[in-house]
Amino acid sequence: MTGSSAAHGPEFDGASLPAPELKPLTLDTTLKIALGPARATALRKAFAMETVGDLLSHYPRDYADREVLRPLNQVTPGANITVIADIVSVRERRMSSKPGTIVEVVISDGGGEFTLTFFGKKSQQWRLDQLRPGLRGSFSGKVGRYQGQSQLANPAYKTFESEEEEARDDPSVRLRHKPLIPIYAATASETSWSLQTMIDLVLRRMDTLPDPVPDDLRAEHGLLTHTEAIRWIHSPDNPAEWMAAQNTLRFTEAWVLQCALMQRHSLARERRTRPRVPTPGGYLERFDAALPFVLTVDQEICAVEIAGDMSQSGPMNRLLQGEVGSGKTVVALRAMLAVADSGGQTALLAPTEVLAGQHLRSITTLLGPDLAAELMPTLLTGKLPVAQKRKALLRTVSGQSRIVIGTHALLSDTVTFFDLGLIVIDEQHRFGVEQRETLRLKGAEPPHVLVMTATPIPRTIAMTVFGDLDVSTIRILPAGRQGITSIVVPLADHPDWFQRIWTKLAEELALGRQGFVVCPAISPAEVEEDAELAPASEDDKKTPLANVETVHERLRGFAPLAGYRIEALHGRMTSEEKDRIMQSFAAGEIDVLVATTVIEVGVDVPNASAMVVLDAERFGVSQLHQLRGRVGRGGVPGLCLLVTNSRTGSPSRQRIGDVAATLDGFRLAELDLALRREGNVLGDMQSGEGTSLRFLRVAEDGDLIAEARQAAFHLVSGDPGIHTNPALRDAIARRLNESERTWLVKG
Ligand code: ADP
Ligand code: MG
Q1: What is the mean pLDDT of residues 14-33?
Q2: Which protein residue's CA is at the shortest distance from atom 11 of ligand 1?
Q3: Domain 6-207: which topology?
Q4: How far is residue 307 CA from its own chain's centroid?
Q5: Helicase C-terminal domain spans which residues (predicted)?
Q6: pLDDT of residue 482
Q7: What pLDDT was estimated at residue 217?
Q8: What would be the CATH architecture of the domain defined by 484-662?
Q9: What lines the ligand 1 site, CB under 6 Å?
């Protein structure tokens, strides 16, 4: 440490570092070797970092211009901040309530002033000596409030004593002369400042980094070398440098991700399994001959793609997407029949028991009595009575049942298949990847896998989250659908329309139909866990959230609905209760369900025609669309009332209008992605597979991802093991480690 600079508190202190090693650092060098055991332990605790690569991929989340640091008067309470400012005044006073002293330091950055408070048990003269008015320093801590004022209590700090202290080796001196200061995600013990200092130190001893992006690709996209990119992202001299670095790292991220997915895809393909093809005059032919309708063009195409996969000796890994009612089940069933023709069985996994039961009913109906008797579709769930379960297990192990339908209970060790040829998973994102793996191991040979989803998946999400699967899409619905009419009910403009909603609902019920009333909350105090509510605007916050308990109670006492059976359904109920309510609604014993978003997925009650969504502005675009898909499923036209207090012209009102204006789920999914931009979307779809994208924005970078995917395809198809590019192979391995690390920190 140079004599003129002073470091205090838990700050990083260059002087306590181990003597620099001569060997340059690589990404795999442990932090223990690079920075010493104390620092390594601290970084492991704070961020689960182990290696130099981990530290260097802790990218700045922002940059502060040294001359115009974030104005001090605009910092937000609760934030961990690092500021560089001048000390304006210092005073010490006794605490009034208990023994001890408070040192209050006022700092200024020219734009605003801010108070630092240090509490001490006795006099803090030493601190007064360090923090003299006129000195400049860096101050890190969490913004709190004290007696109505924002302040930093007991911040870590480091003062710069003289502008001349140019000791080149002291990073603390050199760094503070850089025009841009990187701001890192920090914790109370690891401040942005200490991270910057450590990263700088590591960078100076860093060897040239190997490049995961091949030269030709780098030239084509005008990218920096990896070494430059890493240096500039952490230590830019001007904004152009960090932007160039971000561009390079953004492409690199897309590239590594796509290569990883392509590799996974190609390795899965390399596994050997038995092709499953229909036999002439077999089950599939008989089914097709008896089918009372013709397949839509999209269904036809998907069927061909699936049959093509299953005729190969490598297992199918395909995602079949199409909206509710688009005819996925028929397409999947045809695949099951091809498997049955080859002597094999299919396991159909549904996310809930109710949906498993529903699948059994619709498949049995589709098969017709003869095929159903021969193929014996069987329900196998945890809740079956013992005798029935034993029978189902027996049919499964003997191979008598060619189609076994259940929830994840199908994964339990007690279930053995005679010859499992195909796994169909309904609604992928409710199923973990590991569960899918477990089921794969059930067959003697790896079974073919078909994942069905009714949530339209935007192109970029499909490429990133499901990038290891082939995708088939059904866009058009079978003709003859009655459709759904969606109407926005803007209560802000027409408060009196509130009564009319219920009169309208009563009219539908009078026709012998059923309805849903959807609320964002369970009770006045409890929001439904499942509902990822849109943030409330200031306007929206004025009224309390519509909730199931209150609405249920009110509707029961409401004259036009007198005599109708109205029940509540929400996520706080046990699954038995939920199933019971859902089943009696399906059986027509309940007229109106007042519910939260628990009714969102897969519920099929053809007689339900009306849906009222209260506080519609609190639901996302896709969620509204999914909810709406619960009505108008049978021969009766659907009616969806999107009730909102949002004002005309507000963004949330606009969003609801967009949903009302189209039934095209794919368009709405793209819109949703553009609105939500990132984050949640990926999180939802990932089912626990922590993909942490730093620079890529799935909403904006679609073209870039597609280009990277194309290039990845070329590379991996020529070199599945990626032996020609060790740097890329390492980057893929590191990426996997990194997702694990993200989970560690989250947990
Ligand atoms: P999904 O599984 O995508 O929700 P289903 O396969 O359950 O859709 O189909 C919904 C309904 O439409 C079912 O009653 C099915 O028999 C019927 N259906 C499927 N495909 C067609 C078609 N091409 N023409 C007419 N009706 C169809
Ligand atoms: Mg279905």
Answers
A1: 74
A2: 325
A3: OB fold (Dihydrolipoamide Acetyltransferase, E2P) (2.40.50)
A4: 32
A5: 497-674
A6: 61
A7: 94
A8: 3-Layer(aba) Sandwich (3.40)
A9: 293, 295-296, 299, 322, 324-330, 362, 478
Threshold 0.85, pTM exceeds: no
Residue 423 in contact with residue 347, Cβ under 8 Å? Answer: yes
Assess whether pLDDT exceeds 80 at residue 306.
Answer: yes
Confidence of residue 598 (pLDDT cuts 50, 70, 90): confident
pLDDT of residue 481: 62
Instruction: Name the residue with higher pLDDT: 111 or 679.
Output: 111
Atom 18 in ligand 1: residue holding the nearest Cα: 327
Q: Which two tokens stand for residue 327?
A: 């005819």
Domain ranges in the chain with CATH number 2.40.50.140 = 6-207
CA of 25 to the centre of ligand 2 (A): 55
What residues contact 502, with CB distance under 8 A and at least 6 apart?
Answer: 555, 558, 560, 561
Could you tell me the two tokens for 696?
């890529």
Q: How far apart are CA 655 and CA 652, in angstroms?
A: 5
Structure token digits, residue 72: 């001090």
Which pairing describes strands 136-146 and 484-490: parallel, antiparallel, or unpaired? unpaired
pLDDT tens per residue, range 375-418 = 999 999 888 899 999 999 999 999 999 999 998 778 777 889 99
Burial 668-705 (b: 16+ CB within 10 A, else e): bbbbbbebbeeeebbebbbbeebbebebbbbbebbebb
Q: Which fold has domain 283-474?
A: Rossmann fold (3.40.50)
**Ligand 1 atom nearest to 366, measured from its CA:** 16
Q: Kind and range of the H or E element at 570? A: none
DSSP character at residue 534:
P
Q: What is the pLDDT of residues 706-727, one digit of tens each?
A: 999 999 999 999 998 899 999 9
Tokens of 680: 């949640």
Residue 505: in which H helix or E strand, if any?
helix 497-510
Contacts of 270 (CB under 8 A, 6+ apart): 314, 720
Mutate to test the pocket of ligand 1, among 319, 330, 450 (most ligand atoms within 8 A of CB): 330
Q: How far is the CA of 303 from the centre of ligand 2 (A)?
A: 16
Numbered ranges of CATH 3.40.50.300 in the chain? 283-474, 484-662
Confidence band (pLDDT; 50, 70, 90) for 175? low
Compute, in angstroms, the gap from residue 295 CA to the centroid of ligand 1: 9
